[in-house]
Each structure stands twice: as C-alpha cells, then as structure tokens.
Amino acid sequence: MRTNILKIATSLAFVFASTTAFAHAQLEKAIPPVGGTVASPREIQLDFSEGVEPRFSGVTLTSSGGASVPLGRARVEAGDAKVLIVPIAKPLAPGAYTVHWHAVSVDTHHTQGTFEFTVQ
Amino acid sequence: MPSIPMRFIAGAIAATAALWLTPAYPHAVCGARIFPATIAIDDPGVLDELTLPTVSYVPFNSEGAHEWDASFSWTKTITPGLSVVISDGPTWTHPGGYGWNALSTELQWQALCVPDAEFMFKVGFDISWAGTGTGTLAGSGGQNTYSPLVAAGLGFGTLPPALKYLRPFAITAEFSTTSPGQDWTNGNPNVSTFNWGFTLQYSLPYFNTQLAAIDNNFLKRLIPIAEFAFQTPIYNGAVAGAVTTGYFQPGVIYEADKWQIALEAMIPMTGATGHGAGVVGSLDFYLDDIPARIDQPIFLNGLGIAPGI
Known about the structure:
The complex is a heterodimer of chains A (120) and B (309). Chain A has one helix and eight strands; from the N terminus they run αββββββββ. Chain A has one helix at 2-17; strands spanning 27-31, 37-38, 43-48, 58-63, 75-77, 80-87, 95-104, 110-119. Chain A has 120 residues and is mainly beta. Helices cover 9% and strands 48% of the residues of chain B. Chain B is built from three helices and 18 strands. With 309 residues, chain B is mostly beta strands. Chain B has a single domain (4-289), classed as Beta Barrel (Porin), CATH 2.40.160.40. The chains are: A mainly beta (120), B mainly beta (309).
C-alpha cells in the first residue's frame, strides 16, 4: 500500500508541478504547396499547428541560381496566429524556388523547414 | 505487499489524473526533423511525454510461455533539457502467472541538438527499484538495477538534391547496460547485459512538409519503421546460461498533432528469444501540444547549471 501511495503521490506531484504549454509549431500546409507548380504567387502562406510570433518567425526565398528574392514583412493572419503570411515584392520569373522558413511558436519553441516550388 | 486490485486502483488514479489535466506527450524535435516515440528503443529527445499504454503479446517467450505485457511511461521535464521518467507495468505469462514489474525511474539529459544536421542525442541513468515488483515478479526485484544509457538520432535531411527522396529517412539508436546491484543472490548469478538497438524510419510527414505535399490526410501522417533491439550478456552470462536475445520489429506509426499510435510485429532474432511472431502496440500523447496548456518544464528557463539544465 505504501508503494502505491508513493507512486500516486509522485505522479500527482509531477502533474501539479506543471504550469503552461510547451508546443512546437509544425507546418501543416503551404501556399504555394510544397513541391507544387504554380503561377507567380503574390505571397507565401504557411499554416502551422500552433500560433507563431511573427517578429521571431520568417521566410527567405531563393531562386534556383541562389539569388535571394525580396520579401515583405512577415505577419500573421488577422484573428489566426497559426497562419504566417509573407508578401513577395515582385512577380517571380518562371523557375524553381526554395523556401526556408523558421517559426517561433507563441510559447517560444523553434521549428524550421525547407521546401521548393516551381513557377511556370 | 500491495494487492493487485490496489495496484490497478493506484494506477488508474494516477493515469486519470495525468489524462484529466494533461493528456500526454512523446516525440523529439530537432530542426525540421520530428523523431517519433518508438517502442523497442527510446527516442533521442527529452520532452514531456506519456506512453499509455504499451501492450505486447508473444506466443512463446524465451521460456516457451505465452506472454502479455502492458506498461506506461511518463516523462516530465524539469528544465528544458532535463527530465525524469517513471515507468512500470504488469506481465502475464501462461504458464506462469501475473506480476507487476519493478518500478523504474530515469533521469535524462538532452546533451545535443544540431538543427541543421537533424542530429540529437541524450544521456540517461535508469534505476529499477528493489522490492517494487509483485506476484511472479516479486523475486526479480530483490535489488536495484542500474542502467546508464545514451540515445541518438540522425535525419537524412542534408542529403544532396539528387537523393532528396531519401531525406525522409532517419536512424535512431540506443545503447545501455543493465547491471544488478549484486552479482550474486543466494548463490544464484545475476546477469549484467549490454542493451543495443536501432531504428530505421521513413517519415511521410517529413516528405509532406519538405518534398511534396501529400493530399491524403491519412498517408501523410504515417511513418513506416523497422526496429531492432537486442540484449547481450556481459557478466555472469556464461554462468547463468544466458545468451543474446532480441527482436526485429517492423511496423508503422501514425502521427497526429497531439498523439501517435504505433503497431509493430515482434519477430525473434535468436533461438533463445523465443519463437513465433508477436505483436506490440502503443499509444502516446504529446503533452506539450495538448490544449490544456499546463505542461512545460518546471524551470522553464533552466537553472543555469549546464546547457539545457
């Protein structure tokens, strides 16, 4: 009995010692789609599993030749901090592009990723 | 000695408390890579996680008996890189009987994560506590058992473009030793073992977010996996007649946002392991991704003792 009480007490102590959340923002969906072929997009939209902090999250876009593409300031969609939107300053020429994204969730966890899309 | 019903009640209360307040949590994240919780060996990360339950069945174990095992494992972070793990569970054998395994506690430290390389490893120290086993397993816990361990994981995300479809692959490995507090008990040898294993996994979630979007909502969450786990005697093995045992466990993991479920076959790799294919499954909850939002390290910013601590 003493052992069981100890187990219960230990478990409950761990539970109640917890405070708030601790989640990673994982990419759920991207526009342009990962690996997709599209007309020149006006923005890059990344949907995450958790809300993100736009001040600490961002995207870089490079062409197949390695040239950096100018982007606007990252922002989250009004009323939905899970959606990060980054405007593309100029129309993209046909070709392959690589998106490097990094995100900091609202509880400060870092995630990152890379994908390509093609402009036809 | 506590009765079996009392153990069930105690376990149920603890489990209910955990689920009610914070369902659970188990994977490891390093850069773009998510290492899922695996069954035969530990994942390479230190995060809040709960495995409840893991259930396995083997038709003929090393002693020729049918065997059912169930267990739970709860990892609680103390600082962002330091955690404590509590594990326990019962075993049924026929012929044989029922018993509750010795309670196990483990301290883990996330020693390294290199996000761009998708590489991480941790070290840990596990103690299986004497006197906490019951029933047919009451005698097996007559002394503490000590297990230092190291676990590592490497994603293949840095492969060149020509090999980009291999990037979702990852390998993880765990190495540990298990040593009883005494080499002999009442004239009987206690065997120390070297425990080693690895996994090879292909992450369709990684494929979906890094290579090409997968339209099917079920497929894009699957991780085919093969696990290998072995125990090799390193002391008193010859005296006790112990030899290497191990399983090959092919299977698949379904990874949702806040939980995962894994199902694997258990194929004995040596004659001493047993014979006939068994099966094992586990359900894990990602405590840190649960909307209850009450799970994070007790000391969120660490204690300033060492990286992650």
